[in-house]
Task: structure prediction
Amino acid sequence: MAFISNLPLAHREIVRLHGQRTALKYPATGESVTHAGLAEMADRIAATLHSLGIRQGAVVALFHDKSPAAYAAMLACLRLGVLYANLDPDSPWERLRKILCSCQPRLIINAFESLPHEISLKEAAIAEVLHLRDLEHISAELPDIKSISGSTPAYIMFTSGSTGMPKGAVMSHANLLWFTAWGRNRFQITQDDVLTNANPIYFDNSVFDFYVSIFSGAALVPINSVQTRDARLLMSLLSQACCTIWFSVPSLLVYLLTTRSLMTSDFSTVRKIIFGGEGFPKSKLKQLFDLFGHRCDLENVYGPTECTCMCSVHTITSVDFEDMQSLATLGPLAQNFDHEILPIDTIDSDFGELFLRGPQVGLGYYRDTERTAKSFTQNPRHNDYYDIGYRTGDLVRRDEHGCLHFKGRIDFQIKHLGYRIELEEIEAALGTLPGMRECAVIYQRLGEGLGQIIGFAAMSPTRTSHELIGEIANLVPPYMVPRKISILETLPKNANGKIDRVALQSLASSRS
Result:
């Protein structure tokens, strides 16, 4: 068996073994694409990109609509050693502008019928914009690219940044090869499996959907946002496609449970219900377990974007419900990782910040050496050799069985609706609004893993909370818009003269 050092070689092997099997399946329309067909499409797009002067190391930004050509464009970039960055079409222009200025794409590819933010993109002139359908019709010859290695960057995934500037985490071909091999082994994925892609393609959960399915010779069922919001349609599509693996944020499953959209007959062909990205409220998790736990494995996964999507998994059992107050354990770390717990104090060495090491730790933040140096650091346990890991900022406790339990954040970063959010990014956006003297944002926890983002603004009382929420919605994505914004004369301060966030939490509670 040939040594596989990069993703194009790995995909070529998949096509050789499983070329005539289904790679993409669209139950709503009956459309399907084989692995060989997807590869041919990717080769055509790669050849076109190369003819346009796109070379290894360049960045291509993509408005991805989950069409076959859009997935093929991702593969095309991998073939050329080009970094791709999937963009959120619903993101406000100001945030999108920051992302584009950060990664400076050589080309922006649009897969949608209309171009998101068309006027703003043309005025900004950040990069040339081409429609994906036009790329497929340009005749070109695909060159033989031999210089791609495991260390070649594969994609940039943007996450929330505390300075108001989103962070672009860079993953390599080797990171993804390790991750795919682990995912295939841990979840026993074969060419007969059918995985869902309900996760937004610009969200790191989709890395599991795409890579573990396509690079295992399995099938992927793309599910768009409209289909996701229609619970009965969603369940019907899963049944039609005979899906075997489901993966989403807990919020989607909680929505389905809360609206009483799930019946015991649903998930009929699914053997694993995987969830991750935020805590799953225990009472809702118990409902899900009671419905499907007798015939499906419920898998709780954890992992930062900077470490290739997943680093731990725990299979839910009845034992998890002996304690209904705390979240389910994160489980033990995957074999691809080692870790340290950096204690908050000297009293408890099993409680502190999780520091991850191993071949799935990414390459850092794109064109951001300062934040890279802060988070991707030498193992503080020693200086004997170069031992770089990632400081997650997650506070965990390790139990006597070696399992990790999430206990919060060391900073102001939160998980909300499955998204990792820096509250400071929302504050930075609030601070740009006219008349704003000072502002703060907190996360109010409501119990059972639920919560809401609340903003506070010191400004003229002539402004209304409704107006501010409308203005902030033009600056941050919908999932980052505060549920409430309270307008105060001044914000409370602590003894150090800093904004007193404890007092703001109390104020939020008194107004609930």
Q: What stands out?
A: The mean pLDDT is 93. Residues 7-321 form a domain with the Rossmann fold fold (CATH 3.40.50.12780).
